[in-house]
Amino acid sequence: MSPHKPEWTLGVEDACATQVLEGVSDAHDGTAFSPPLRLKNASAPKGRLLTTEEYVKGVLHGDRTMLSRAITLVESNATRHFDLAQAVVQGILPYTGNSVRVGITGVPGAGKSTFIEALGTWLCAQGKRVAVLAVDPSSSVSKGSILGDKTRMERLSREANAFIRPSPSGGTLGGLTRKSRETLLLCEAAGYDVILVETVGVGQSETTVRSMVDFFLLLVITGAGDELQGMKKGVMELADAVLVNKADGANAMKADATRVEYERILHYLRPATEGWVTRAYTCSALENTGIREIWGVVEEFMRSVSTSGVLAERRKKQTLAWVYGMVEDHLRKSFYDCPAVAANRGEVERAVVAGELSATQAAAKLLHLKGQASRQ
Ligand SMILES: Nc1nc2c(ncn2[C@@H]2O[C@H](COP(=O)(O)OP(=O)(O)OP(=O)(O)O)[C@@H](O)[C@H]2O)c(=O)[nH]1
Ligand SMILES: [Mg+2]
Predict the structure, then answer these.
(1) What is the Å distance from ligand 1's center to 306 Cα?
(2) pLDDT for 175
(3) Number of alpha carbons in the 13 Å side-chain half-sphere of residue 327
C-alpha cells in the first residue's frame, strides 16, 4: 500500500489539493498492518509514529498532510495504534463542532459524486473549506468509490480549500462507523467549514451516515415512471431534502414532475427533523443549476435548527448513540468470539431445530455459557 497523488491531478503537482490515500486493510489483530503512510512533501518527521501533540498540532494548523496521517492512524485496525489514535481524537475534540455536516445518499448512478463536485467547487468559490468523505461498506472490494471518481472530482480535487478522502476499507460496519465519525471530527478540527459525506444508497450505510450528520440529502433521478415504487419509505423518512438530479435537457420536465410526485409523498411521511418540513427540489449537477439553491436550503435549515435547539439536541443524541453503538458492537463480538459459545452453538441450534429446546431456553443457555466464561 502506498500513498499517491490521484492521477486525475493531471501532473499539476503544486496545485493539487488532495493526497488520496487508500483505506487501511489488514487483519483485526494488526499483524498485516503496513507501517504508517509516508507522504511526499510531508512536513512532519518521517518513518515513525508521531507524538499525540504533533498530530494534534498538525491537524489544528490545518496541515493537510498531517490531517491525512491522523486519519490513517484513526483508520488503523492495529491495537498498538488504537490508544494513540484515541489520544489524538481526545486532543482535537475541544476544537470540533463548528462545521456544517451534510450526508448525501442516492442509488448508484444518481449523480452523488458529480453533485459533490459541483457543490464543493461552488462552496470553495464562496471561500469555504470543504472536506469530502465517503462511507462505503463495499469499499474493501472496490477500494473506495471516491477513488474511482477520477473525472467527476477533478475540479474539486484541484481546489486548495478541498480535502477528499475515500472510504476506509475493510472491517465491520461498526468499525467503519467509528472511523468515519472520527475522521469527520479531525476534518472539523482542521478548520473545514463544510463536511460532505457520500454514501451509496444500499442498506445500513444511510442510517450510519444519518447518525453522524446535521442535514441529510437524498439524491434521486427520474425513471420510467415507477421510480417511487422502488424507493424505500424508510430512506425518505431520513431525508431533510429530496433532490431530483439530472434536471437538464430533455429530462428537465420529467424531473419537475418527479419533484412534484416526491412532494406529494413527503407530505404523508414523518419529517426527519423536528420543526423542519422536508421538501423536494431539482438540480443538474452536470450543468450546475439548482446548486446554490440547495445550499440555500441547507443554510436555512442550519439557522432554523440552531435557533430552536434541535441541532444541539441532535448532536448530543448522536454522540450518545455512538457510545452505545460501540458498546453493543463490543458485546456482540465478545459473545460470538467466546470459545464456550462457539463450541456449543452447533448442538444448541440442532436442539432448537429438532424441537427439543425452546428458542428462549436456547438463548438462555448460550448466554449462561458466555456468563460463565466471563467469570473465569
Ligand atoms: N445529464 C446528467 N447526467 C448526470 C448528472 N449528474 C450526474 N450525471 C451522470 O450520471 C452518471 C453517474 O454519476 P455519478 O456522479 O458517478 O453518480 P454516483 O451517484 O456518485 O454513483 P456511485 O458512486 O456509483 O453510487 C455519470 O455518467 C454522470 O455524468 C446531471 O445532472 N445530468
Ligand atoms: Mg459516487
Answers:
(1) 32
(2) 78
(3) 6
Ligand 1 centroid to Cα of residue 314, in Å, is 31
Atom 3 (ligand 1) nearest CA: 246
What value, to the nearest 5°, has the Cα angle with vertex 192 and ends 188 and 193? 100
Q: Look at ligand 1, atom 22, and give the residue with the nearest C-alpha.
A: 108
Question: Under CATH, which architecture does the 314-375 domain have?
Answer: Orthogonal Bundle (1.10)
Residue 145 CB less than 6 A away from ligand 1:
yes
Residue 339: CB atoms within 10 Å: 9
Least confident among 97-106, 158-167, 236-245: 158-167
φ, ψ of residue 180 to 5 degrees: the values are -65, -40
248 and 286 Cβ atoms separated by less than 8 Å: yes
CA geometry: angle 190, 64, 192, nearest 5 deg: 35
With a 6 A CB cut-off, is 200 part of the ligand 1 pocket?
A: yes
Test site for ligand 1: of 286, 287, 294, most ligand atoms within 8 A of the Cβ? 286
pLDDT digit string, tens, across residues 73-131: 999 888 889 899 999 999 999 999 999 999 999 888 899 999 999 999 999 999 999 99
Question: Percent of the chain scored above 70 by pLDDT?
Answer: 79
